[in-house]
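Known limitations

Structure tokens in this collection are predictions and should be treated as such. Users comparing against experimental data should check residue numbering before alignment. To illustrate the layout, the record for Threonine/serine exporter-like N-terminal domain-containing protein is reproduced below. The input appears on top and the generated tokens appear beneath it.
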Amino acid sequence: MRLCPPLLLFLTSLSQLREWCTCLSLRPQSPSSFHHNSRRNPWRRAGRSNILPQQQQQPQPRTRHNSVSLEDGDEMTTTTTTISIGTNDTDTTTTTIPFLDIELPETSMRRHYNWREFVPRNTSLIQAVRWMVTGKTTLSTTSFVVSDAKLQRNLAALARTLLLLRVYEAKFGLPTNTGGPAVQRQVLSDITKDLYSSGAPIWVLEAVMERVAEGMTGRTGVQYMLLPNRCFIFYPATNTTTMTDQQQQHSSSATDMFKVMPGFYIARLGAVEQVAVRLASFASNTKSVERLHPEAIRTPRRDELVNIQNQETQAMIDDDKTLMDKSAADLSREILNLASSTYGLFFYLNNPQFQAALSTDNTTANGDSTETDPVHQFWTVSNTTQELFSRLATAEAARSLEQIHGKETILYSPTAIALFRMLSAAGACAMWFGGSFSDMVASAILSILVPYVETFRTLAAEERFLTEVVASFGVGLIAGLLALQWPDRFCFGAIAVASVMDLLQGFKVVYAAIEVMSRHVVAGAGRLLEGILFTGLISYSLKSGLDFAFRLMLGSADTLTRDYSSMLVSVHGIRECFFPLILPFAAVAWSGLFRPSYVDLPLMAFHGMLAFGLTWAGAPLFMAAAAVTLSAGIISRFTGREALGNTLAGLYALVPGTYMVRALLSSSRSDFLERVLVTAATIGLGSWAGTILCSPTMVGKTSGWFSRRQRGSDIKKQ
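Generated tokens:
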């Protein structure tokens, strides 16, 4: 009977693989061109103008609309990715964020990592394997070079960004009521809180937020340190342009400390991730947090800079009337989208290769000094222009976060969440703890008791454990009464443990083990200790409820000393042939408890089925955890979507919280702590092994063991 269910799971995985292949199918090749959004219909792109040499330009004036976006690939790439810009039309029914086309229920559909930009071409097998592991090529190789056509397209967009910034500065001046240093620090704090409370791991969050701070402020020295429930951000000293546009104001270094709370909210993670990735792209040479290797981009020649400068200057003259009619919001939208889709402004400023193209020689071919050279003046960014761009980016991010928090769509109603809890508890009772159909019904009903008791948490906001202890005691009491009254139908262990799955700290312990291995010892040790102690408290509450049930039913003191191990195993468990029917519903249910977007739910359920199928077939916990993270990494690599949701859903069946409770409720509890640590370390090491084989994409960055080790060398080269 064990051969048939794995076969069904294998066929299910094949159907999912077919859908992935369909999603990964290449689009037809299109010529290199700019794409513009039409005012009349923002969802249809029209009005494209090719980048041609100046002598080939048509005499008629060119009209540029709200924004410009560039293709991702060069002439060797067969796919085209266009950034769609949101509108401020009042007749739209979809909740969008200003400037960004973020639809909150469908956030994860955006690609924050384009593997075609990073894959090495015409190289050895070792380099291909290295890219598969890390997501990027780290060794210097002449075969990994951005084409001249793509380099010129990006430089043309950068030139137009500089021109638009100067037009904005001359027309509207520096914003005085938003985007300042105080708002910048608040935005960085809010993004950190939202990402951490939505499930972003510490070993990813610190590296991503450093790049976000660089993209928003232009500073490279912002540092983060995350502790249990606390975050510190260090801001180095800098010079800031004053409102008079004539003076520089020196600001000393500062450190912010604020409270952070871990949690899991996959849908919000996808929404805030877009804001973070967009800010990080301003300091990157791609549309994501990751950067191309320094040797991938050659230094532009002077003649290229001159040609691009002349072309974009003439295009700006032709668009003078259109620019005068644009509002500050429209102009800011075009500036930020150009900077996000191509070489970011701060990547250009902080990259020595680009700056070397302007200061290779002290004099030009005509004998002019570089300070008076028109080319040098055009491509040199003043402090005022830097401050203007930083304030525009900050203002956009602040409005985006405000709309995420204020107009966030409720994806799942309370009824849907209650249904997810019931199906998840029933599935856990049957498949993990060997419960019967009666146990499934009882655990599903008792799982509703836990959130009902937690509604009284407002009466004791600072005593969170009180309500959860009461809920655990109630579950233990009712499950004990059922098991004592009808011992042939109900099993206390299957009902009680499955009903309190939401209260167990299994994910906290697994995260703690991985954090310790990623050298975040303080945060990891704190979460590990909290998870162990809190799970022990829940399990003792369950046993206290069972003891009270003994007193109510039997009324004899000597019955309290009986062995509880006989009540932990059901003798009337359902047959394994029903598992393939129960597993899909249970996997969707426990995936929905993480509150993902609708498009993420099928893949999350698949990873849950994968993890349970492997353990059911007899695979060790290490292999099952490694398979889950490896699959999540591969999918995120080729789709650019977040890997965290798939990882969490897959590890749901492997978390040590269930093992901790069953070990503590058993008669032999001398090796309880040993079981906890061994199980957590096994799952953590397995999860870490999967990320070594293929670094997953989290918050727009490929994050694995090799990626973390090579981060220091990449920073030195960049």
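For this record: The CA atoms of residues 27 and 360 lie 41 Å apart. The mean pLDDT is 73. Please report discrepancies through the issue tracker.
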